[in-house]
Specification:
- By secondary structure, the chain is mainly α.
- The protein is built from 4 helices and no strands.
- The protein has a single domain, classed as Four Helix Bundle (Hemerythrin (Met), subunit A), CATH 1.20.120.
- The chain is 84% helix and 0% strand.
- The model has no long low-confidence stretch (mean pLDDT 96).
Length: 148
């Protein structure tokens, strides 16, 4: 059961790392530092992929091994609609953005920089939002309104 408690913190750290790498990647590409941009974006992609593995593992362990449902949000008043609005938008965008992130990365790796740039301008803000709201959801669920 102790292992189960590590996952939310690990997942938040992975989301925060992805967010930081995304911001650094944008900074570098705006300054035409392509190799630094590439490293940051490959790092953000790797960290996001690791997050996905950890997230799925956490929920498989939580439900299949321990028979637990989702963590309940304990906030009340205005915090509830704020939390659930953020959570809903985060979840929908995370699920729909993944294939577009892969397509953007693929285009860059194949040297199709014009189409990469066009797609990245749409995908980047969504990916950044998903990474940032993942951290916000974690903070609201485990620190601002903890269940214990």
């Amino acid at each position: 059961m102790e292992l189960l408690k590590v996952f939310p913190h690990l997942n938040a750290a992975l989301n925060a790392t992805s967010c930081l790498l995304l911001v650094c990647g944008l900074y570098f590409i705006l300054r035409k530092r392509v190799s630094s941009h590439r490293l940051c974006m490959l790092g953000a992609s790797s960290v996001s992929a690791l997050f996905l593995v950890c997230y799925v593992t956490h929920h498989i362990i939580r439900t299949s091994i321990y028979g637990l449902g989702p963590t309940k949000f304990k906030g009340d008043g205005l915090s509830r609609p704020v939390y659930f609005t953020i959570l809903t938008s985060h979840t929908i965008l995370a699920a729909t953005a993944a294939p577009f992130i892969i397509a953007t990365l693929w285009r860059a790796l194949k040297g199709k920089f014009d189409s990469h740039k066009r797609l990245a301008r749409l995908v980047y803000p969504v990916w950044l939002y998903v990474s940032l709201t993942g951290v916000i959801v974690y903070l609201m669920l485990y620190h601002f309104f903890p269940s214990h």
